[in-house]
Design goal:
The chain has 728 residues and is of the alpha+beta class. The chain has 25 helices and 18 strands. The strands form three sheets. Strands 10, 11, 12, 13, 14, 15, 16, 17 and 18 form a nine-stranded mixed β-sheet that branches. Strands 1, 2, 3, 6, 7, 8 and 9 form a seven-stranded mixed β-sheet that branches. A two-stranded antiparallel sheet has the order 4-5. Adenosine-5'-diphosphate binds next to strand 10, strand 12 and strand 15.
């Protein structure tokens, strides 16, 4: 084995778990100790300030300067008591991950000393020099002014010595430069629209929350092995590597015992997360070797998304302490499952009702059906856009592969809900002319209270109904959930507004309220039927069938992004006040640019590795074979020598052919990149990278993976899949 690989593999095998002492207290004792939550607000803020802040959090009432100053003061007091010395605005720019810029609390006291200071002004607004964050041309670099603004609905928290204040990030001209600002708008839109519809059933509903429970999948690899794989280091995935003889065939990893080194990592991660108020609940092995999953209890969507962003950072940081690197890439290894992030989504009221769950009375059941049908209709009308909201250069590897949601957005309802919808669709229209209670009794099929048994789940469905929520499974493991959540919530908001106007029109004509609702539902059930699919989403037949039904079947990421700029998407985003056309265009520029950059970096890394790792090693091994062939000639008569060397000659030729191919392809790829880089339009450039450069990566990889099988194991420098995936 090459010295380097030998060394890293050896150490990886010998590594012991870093033991984490289980905290003595119970989780309920340390949950959210690092969060400025209501309990601390109450303790650290004057009564009046506390009331104003709570009102702002619950109802979005703006805070005046005086209150902001008082909040900042209380927050500072708490943070300093907790040992914090710095503060930062914490935001989600349109890159991966979060951004922060730390400032110390200190100010001159005017007497030659220092005081700790933090004002309302600094709490409410900051101006990071943000010219190098992606902005899609919204700001010219010379007008690089953007600012971050406090989001009181997500509580401040402390990491290390720093008080982190969740903020939105917007341009001076008001356009959002982040994920959070449009997400908050989408949540507000769905709140308003859903409250209006809820009021048909219960006039007491004043607020509707959108909930999100994410399930985060990830891989762990040994840090030493990771460091010896430049492709993992620079691109987050292996650009080469032959499948291990054993990977997930035996399905022995899923839900298996968690290895001790990993267990210690998980324990510490849970402890740190709980202290930050992230309500982690579930942990288990996933399908692929070295793949795991964690999930919290669901929360209000904006907070849940902040928590997901926060935990991804925490996962990266703590992994290193335990001698691991965490891989959040959607497809780090070819041939084994990739990672996703199921987004469990639902709506619920301030009166405690879950709108995606059946209830006890006919009214509650009609409400349940109303929200399910409106969601389906939104998903049907915006199925192309929803795919756009989850696609990325890295998630493209997962989608459409036989392991993850197909590249067609459809929805699985399960037999029971399907049956209910079918019955309504085929119900007697005359029955709908009856009034009130009568129509409810006749119009709504019986829904057993415990209908929602989760057993008939369909793992191949990208948007499945799972009892009291929908599970959007196509979201990528590395993604910011806000991208999918803002599209989904906005689409549902738009649909609920349309629904209400149609129902109101019928009521205005003199129809009974429930009869009107049922009539519109019957129409919507019919119209949204094409998006319902309970069969095998991986099958070839489904692709053909889905195209016939008019669902979007595009598989090229740069073209999938076009859905954001379709007439219906622009109308939807503008009518709900979430994003306008100019903003959508700017954000698409960023998506295309990001796509191009990702493939560009992969192309460069693969080219380098091919030229300075793979070809030299293969050639060296080939030379030892050539040497052997010559020596055979010295030892044996010509005919015998030829016979004995025949296999080696085959390998020599095989290596020659493959290395020539690799070299030529790498050159060709460089030329193709040069040509693509000259294209001005970001969209066209991304298309060129998708259509021309990406396939070359695969062709080069194919040859390298074949070489890995023949070249002497002792010479191969890069850690192999069997090492990367099975190290404990
Ligand atoms: P699975 O069986 O799909 O792997 P998990 O228990 O791992 O389920 O995760 C389910 C996630 O869905 C959790 O985060 C859970 O809190 C969340 N969840 C449960 N009910 C709802 C709901 N009504 N709305 C949103 N999320 C929910
Ligand atoms: Mg799930």
């Amino acid at each position: 084995m090459s010295k380097l690989r030998f060394r890293v593999v050896e150490t990886a095998f010998k590594k012991k778990a870093v033991e984490v002492k289980a905290p003595k207290d119970r989780p309920s004792d340390y949950f959210a100790v690092n969060v400025f939550n209501r309990e601390k607000m109450f303790k650290y803020l004057p009564e009046k300030t506390f009331q104003c802040l709570v009102d702002s959090i619950d109802n979005g009432t703006p805070l005046n300067r005086e209150t902001a100053d008082a909040v900042a003061n209380g927050m500072k007091k708490w943070a300093i008591e907790m040992g914090a010395t710095h503060y930062t605005h914490w935001f989600h720019p349109l890159t991966e991950g979060t951004a922060e810029k730390h400032d110390a609390f200190v100010e001159h006291d005017g007497k030659g000393g220092m005081i700790e200071k933090f004002s309302g002004k600094l709490l409410v607004q900051q101006e990071p020099d943000a010219s190098s964050f992606p902005n899609g041309g919204i700001r010219n670099t010379f007008e690089a002014r953007g600012y971050t603004a406090w989001d009181p609905s997500s509580p401040a928290f402390i990491v290390n010595d720093t008080l982190c204040i969740p903020t939105i990030f917007i341009a001076y001209t008001g356009e959002p430069l982040d994920y959070k600002a449009p997400l908050l708008k989408a949540l507000e839109a769905v709140n308003k629209a859903a409250v209006d519809v809820c009021n048909y059933f219960d006039p007491n509903v004043k607020k509707v929350y959108s909930y999100l429970g994410w399930e985060q999948e990830y891989f762990l690899v040994d840090e030493g092995l990771y460091a010896a794989r430049p492709d993992l280091l620079l691109t987050g995935r292996t650009l080469m590597g032959h499948e291990s003889s054993k990977n997930q065939q035996l399905e022995d990893h899923y839900f298996g015992a968690i290895p001790s080194r990993v267990m210690e990592y998980m324990k510490e991660l849970e402890f740190e997360s709980l202290k930050l108020g992230i309500p982690l609940k579930t942990r288990h092995n996933e399908v692929a070797p070295n793949q795991f999953e964690l999930a919290p209890i669901f929360e209000e969507c904006n907070l849940a998304n902040d928590h997901n962003q926060l935990i991804m950072g925490l996962m990266r940081k703590l992994a290193r302490k335990h001698g691991f690197r965490v891989l959040l890439h959607e497809k780090p290894f070819k041939g084994v499952n990739g990672s996703g992030k199921h987004n469990n989504w639902s709506l619920g009221t301030d009166t405690g009702a879950l709108l995606m769950a059946p209830g006890k009375t006919p009214e509650e059941n009609l409400r349940f059906i109303t929200f399910v049908v409106n969601t389906l209709k939104a998903v049907y009308r915006h199925n192309a856009l929803l795919k756009g909201s989850i696609i990325s250069a890295s998630n493209a590897h997962r989608l459409g592969a036989n392991e993850a949601p197909p590249a067609i957005i459809s929805s699985f309802l399960g037999s029971q809900v399907s049956k209910v919808l079918d019955e309504i669709e085929n119900s007697d229209p005359d029955a709908l002319n009856l009034a009130g209670k009568q129509v409810l009794d006749l119009g709504i099929p019986r829904i057993p209270e415990l209908l929602l048994d989760n057993t008939d789940r369909n793992r191949t469905s990208p948007f499945a109904f799972t009892g009291n929520r929908f599970e959007f499974r196509a979201v990528g493991s590395e993604a910011n959930c806000a991208s999918a959540m803002l599209a989904l919530n906005a689409a549902v908001a738009e649909q609920l507004i349309i629904f209400k106007s149609e129902v109101d029109a019928k009521i205005a004509e003199g129809k009974d309220k429930f009869a009107a609702i049922l009539e519109v539902l019957r129409k919507d059930i019919k119209e949204s039927k094409p998006v319902r699919f309970d069969g095998n989403g991986y099958s070839e037949e489904w692709k053909i069938e889905a195209a016939k039904r008019g669902l979007d079947c595009e598989t090229s990421a740069p073209l999938i992004y076009d859905a954001y700029l379709s007439e219906s998407s622009i109308k939807m985003f503008e009518s709900t006040g979430v994003l306008n056309e100019k903003e959508l265009e700017a954000r698409n520029e960023i998506k295309w640019e990001m796509y191009t950059k990702k493939i560009q970096i992969e192309g460069r890394v693969l080219g380098d590795l091919a030229m300075n790792h793979i070809i030299p090693i293969a050639t060296r091994y080939q030379s030892t074979l050539i040497d052997n062939v010559y020596k055979m000639k010295d030892l044996f008569p010509a005919e015998k020598a030829a016979q004995l060397s025949s296999k080696n000659l085959e390998i020599i030729e095989d290596i020659a052919n493959r290395t020539i191919f690799i070299k030529e392809k790498v050159d060709e790829m460089i030329e193709a990149r040069k040509a693509a880089n000259k294209i001005e339009s970001e969209r066209e450039k991304a298309i060129a990278y998708h259509d021309q450069i990406f396939p070359m990566l695969e062709e080069i990889r194919y040859q390298i993976d074949k070489l890995e099988l023949v070249v002497d194991n002792e010479m191969w420098t890069l850690p192999k899949y069997r090492e990367l995936l099975f190290i404990r």
